[in-house]
Prior knowledge:
The structure holds two protein chains of two kinds.
Chain A: E1 4-8, H1 18-25, E2 36-39, E3 48-51, H2 60-63, H3 91-95, E4 102-104, E5 109-111, H4 117-120, H5 127-131, E6 137-141, H6 142-148, E7 152-159, E8 162-172
Chain B: H1 8-15, E1 34-39, E2 48-54, E3 57-63, H2 76-80, E4 95-98, E5 101-104, H3 107-125, E6 130-134, H4 140-154, E7 159-161, H5 168-178, E8 195-199, H6 203-206, H7 210-219, E9 223-227, E10 240-242, H8 249-263, H9 268-274, E11 275-276, H10 278-285, H11 290-297, H12 301-311, E12 317-321, H13 323-326, H14 331-345, E13 353-357, E14 376-377, E15 381-382, H15 386-396, H16 410-418, E16 424-428, H17 432-435, H18 439-448, E17 451-456, E18 468-471, E19 480-483, E20 488-492, H19 505-518, H20 527-537, H21 550-555, E21 559-560, E22 587-588, E23 607-610, H22 628-633, E24 639-641, H23 643-649, E25 656-660, E26 665-672, E27 680-682, E28 698-701, E29 708-709, E30 713-719, H24 723-731
Parallel strand pairs in B: 6-7, 6-16, 8-9, 8-12, 9-10, 11-22, 12-13, 16-17, 17-18, 23-27, 24-26
Antiparallel strand pairs in B: 1-2, 2-3, 4-5, 4-18, 14-15, 19-20, 20-21, 23-30, 25-26, 25-30, 28-29
Helix pairs in contact in B: 3-19, 4-19, 4-20, 5-14, 8-11, 8-12, 8-14, 11-12, 16-18
Amino acid sequence: MIGFEFFIDQSRCIGCQACVQACMECDTHRGRSMIHLEVIDRTVSTQTGPVVCMHCEDPVCASVCPADAIKQTEEGIVHSSMKSRCIGCSNCVLACPFGVPRYVASIDQMMKCDMCFDRTSVGKKPMCATVCPSQALYFGPRAEIERLRPEQPVNEFRFGRQIVKTKVNVMVRPETTVMDFDVVSFMSGASSGV
Amino acid sequence: MAIPTLDETQFIDKFGPHLNYEPAGGWQEQEPDKLVKTHCCFCGVQCGIQLKVKDNKVIGFEPWEEFPVNHGMLCPKGIKRYLQNEHPDRLLSPLIRDRKGFRTATWDEALDRTVHAIKTIQERYGRDAFAILGGASMTNEKAYLIGKFARVALRTANVDYNGRLCMVSAGAANKMAFGIDRAANPWSDIPLAKAIILSGTNLGECFPILTDYVWRARDNGAKIIVIDPRMTPIARTADLFLPVKPGRDSALANGILHVMIERGWIDEHFIDQHTEGFEQACKLVAKYSPEFTEAITGVPASSIVRAAEIWGPTATSMLLHARGVEHQVKGVENCLSYINLVLASGRIGKPGCGYGTITGQGNGQGGREHGQRCNQLPGARDIEDLDHRRFIADFWRISESDLPHTGLTACEIFDAIESGKIKGLLSISFNPLVSIPDANRTRAALEKLEFYGCIDFFLSESGRYADVVLAGSLQEEDEGTVTTGEGRCVRLRQSISPPGDARVDWEIIAELAGRLGASDYFSYGAAEDIFRELSAATKGGIADYSGMTYSKIEENMGVFWPCPSSDHPGTPRLFEDGRFLRENGRAKFHAYEYRPPSEDVDADYPVFFTSGRVVSQYLSGNQTRRIGALVDQYPEPLCEMHPLLAARVGVAQGDLVRVKTRRGELVVPVQIVKTIRPDTVFVPYHWPGRKSANLLTNRALDPISKIPEYKVCACRVERARSASAIARSLKR
């Protein structure tokens, strides 16, 4: 879909896993979800974070692949490893700064999010962003999300001295506030005893 | 006698739940024959969805982005619902229980046996000794048919439904305050609100796609207030979180009203012109100062003041609540106390201004309008109102004197089975053994029945006790309509026909009616015939559907009732003219003093127990516990406990805890979380048997709505010995 981009706002995520479940249902994924839902620390918070491939402009996973099995399309989509080339070495799994690729032993191949290439290439939105009930995963024009939301899209990340630019954007709040996640902090002193 | 002949293991081996992971035909690209635009079979939001159909099998789904409520959004349950199809547990023919378990039967045999039992019991013990229980996940057509079947064919007063376990407190409160039982606003008003109160609704898990509506409001600058003993996903980023102590909701609402009045944040003109009872409410809340309210609710006085500061002076607002406030013996009082906040603000009946309960079941709204409730006739009519009785009796061509009066509600029906007054039961889409509080009593009641017949598509844990099982239909196997939580009547489309010898539910009901000698009243050729009849039956009633047709509903992607004529567009927002549906046209404030729950904590049982849902399961789990990917997401019930309480109990993450109430006990793994009050534990309720949260809950009923108090009772928790510890002790 021309002009449409992918935006992630982890702060909106409700941990429902609709993205995970829907990813399995994408025709070419055949029951395998390529999205990871990270539970940050359930003891502390219900905060979860959906992780899709960020589709780096200069993908590290592809650079480190000794078999040249990871290809990037003209549109900037970074694909799963090619079955005919992948040697299952997991270099990509270790190298990715976002922790996206997974080595799937049963098929001896690396699989990762391809931004529903089969759908986006025929004018549909990616499955996860279509179903996401909180729209933590959003697929649409940049101007539209900038108009709708107070958060700002960011697609440049610094890992030490390495700067990674990505096709996928992360929404960040313009102002950051301290957040507390312990119910006790919200309770009156009188009743906070057990 | 309804005593099971299969033990639990044999039952599970044969009838499941087994886990279905793959679509019919496996994971391969399959070109569907058609995409059917219909709706999810689960919660009251009724998301639009397209089902992929190939060779009379549902093989997957495709988002339906044009449907204006969810725009393609779905929760995990909606995504995986299609895996109920081609499921190994699917009932494919009628079953009759024998000494070895269940044997398949012909329809003639199963229906005759059922009718024989009904007649025998009614002749011996009276007509009301046979009860029927329906479900709020069923279509409007079926809900109407169950009510009519009970009154015209069975001629029993004892018909009720599992919506009695759901939102009836809100329904009764809405009737008392507004004269009409429907959410006052469409969901589309949520993003227009500048202040939102979400009280007792785990919205992110129970109505996931409404999260987007709330977030859009926040994008527009709205402040979100969440009231819940647990910091649920929607509470995590709320502007204000009020962790109310279980069972204290009416006090909290009174406290907020107190500050609103004190600060003058009330709409005197609206109160004067459009309401009554404000003075009594005013007098009542005078003593609910922030400090007084804090002492009852455990919410800091400053947070109560802050809630009033957000809610009081705002320009637009929505107040939404759900089971958290409704599932209490003062459920109606809680709802009315919250409605006071809406009425005092004057913000209702305008864009971005209003109120609603979020119904939990697929047809929670429509299921309570068409007469399957023990106190109600079609069109939300009152069964004790003589005019209403005459209208429906004439409509059905029976004598008014033959129309039964008010019967028992769902939980009372089980009480009556227990006491021997009710001897026979027919249920459809209802799994009482898992869903009714105090499950040990429910089990004993089922065993006591002289006859139990069950219509369902999967054999539930309750169905194990049935004498006759009639294989019915999944939602996608029948045509029909449901009415969503916002009052929008939408069309369900038949995607496939029932497999094997299973039949669509309404045909089974009509067939039973015929064999009971009432065939003249139940001759339908299609579900649409039933809809035509039910919409005509609602004419002139409060829930008026008489201007709706299937094609009108389809063309408009749903029509909001009231829709009293064919040229009427429907009514998305109520009370726009400032007129309420009570006799004098005014909305009513109610003044309810806070009263404690039926069972409060004490020295013996010092911890609050509460229950609710998780996002990947639905109600008693008869559908969702059979879908592999949903079960994997949350495989078994866990006991949520704050680290402070865990330290006192002496348990660490993953340990087993025994949760005990005066009614039963449960051993489950503990999940240590800071997202719950330290004086409260939570276990979700979707599981049967020894994992059933309803072994613990209290069957105390709200005096008006007869909803049971699921959301609060007293328990004690202790560390349970782990399996390995037990193994070690056995070795010694």
